[in-house]
């Protein structure tokens, strides 16, 4: 980037390296930053530093939190007999937005993927198994992504859990609500037919 | 955003407020930040603070720079008889990428827009006029955006400059190179016909 102001060029480059940000967006962000006042800049950089310093994994469910136990694990009103196993924090947020699920979570922080050299020890499987010594737990809902890696992870974990006598379930497959059947792929449609229920 | 980790919620919100960043992108950026190591975070925040502190307007052309005079105004090889008047720094970058223009610039930092309460005194028009006392200057190229505001600004400035006996030109209008005529709007096509040249 030919530009007189090296700090500006570095700023644009900084944003360009972020995921999903192209050259034009990086320029837009850089000029947005330059137009902020001193207090806004301080808030911007402090929020980043602060989040980075304070956020770590919940000692129970491995979700991200700034205290020892996350707000879900600390909430005594939640049903602690059910654990929903997800790949990452964004999935927890997605389930929480439904306001329907009242159990606990376990965040794997990834999925088993031999292609990317990610084995069971690289995600929080052991931690999950150690939680199962609690007699309260009646059901584990496998809610990993419906991808090859997510499926493999769900299968792997369910095989570890079943011998313990705990019920293991999987999210229902089917056509997404509001979607157009015309655009549904064959596998999804097949699963939707297989999983059909009486009305 | 229901989330245990207030610093994380604040971080996502911070990115959501940036231009062109939606909720999903903000989440993606926030988790990208959390996955950085301490050195990367320091570089990230330092680059932002540094750019914000050091960048100001060039005392000659009002482009953004971190020294008194920007690298274009300081370059003695540039043709100082021509000034290309643009709305903002991004336009300077766009012209510089062509590697064709060798004159100087003047950055208005906006365009006259009565709708948005932006008058001639809110952009660097006076500063531009003060530069014209230099006898070297032979031509002013108006390169404001081809929008209503850009046009009005170009007209306003050209009326101020013409009495000084300096040539004022405007960028050529026409169909963009590589574009499909089918999608060109009527005004552009009309201008392209009006501006046709012999081959």
Break the fold down into its secondary structure elements and pairings.
The structure is a homodimer of 199-residue chains.
Chain A: H1 6-16, H2 23-34, H3 38-54, E1 56-57, E2 64-65, E3 79-86, H4 89-98, E4 103-107, H5 125-131, E5 139-142, H6 148-161, E6 167-170, H7 186-194
Helix pairs in contact in A: 1-2
Description:
The structure is a homodimer of 199-residue chains. With 199 residues, chain A is α/β, with parallel strands linked by helices. The first copy, chain A, is built from 7 helices and 6 strands; from the N terminus they run αααβββαβαβαβα. In chain A, strands 4-3-5-6 form a 4-stranded parallel sheet. A two-stranded antiparallel ribbon of chain A has the order 1-2. In chain A, a hairpin with a 6-residue loop joins β1 and β2. Chain A is globular. At the A-B interface, α1, α2, α3, β2 and α4 of A face α1, α2, α3, β2 and α4 of B.
Beta-sheet strand percentage of chain A? 5-15%
Task: Give the spatial strand order of the biggest sheet of chain A.
Answer: 4-3-5-6
Radius of gyration of chain A: 22 Å
**Helicity level of chain A:** 40-55%
Q: Report, as a whole number of angstroms, the end-to-end distance of chain A.
A: 62 Å
Domain count of chain A: the total is: 2
Instruction: Please give the most extensive interface between any two protein chains, plus how many residues each contributes.
Output: A-B, 52 and 52 residues
Oligomer state equals homodimer
Number of DSSP helical runs of chain A? 7
Q: Which structural category fits the helices and strands of chain A? A: alpha/beta
In CATH, the topology of the largest domain in chain A is named: Dna Topoisomerase Vi A Subunit, Chain: A, domain 2
Mean pLDDT of chain A: 89
One letter per element, helices H and strands E, the order of chain A comes to: HHHEEEHEHEHEH
The CATH class of the largest domain in chain A is Alpha Beta
Number of strands of chain A: 6
| Main β sheet profile of chain A | 4 strands, parallel
Q: In the CATH hierarchy, what is the architecture of the largest domain in chain A at level 2?
A: 3-Layer(aba) Sandwich
Low-confidence stretches of chain A: none
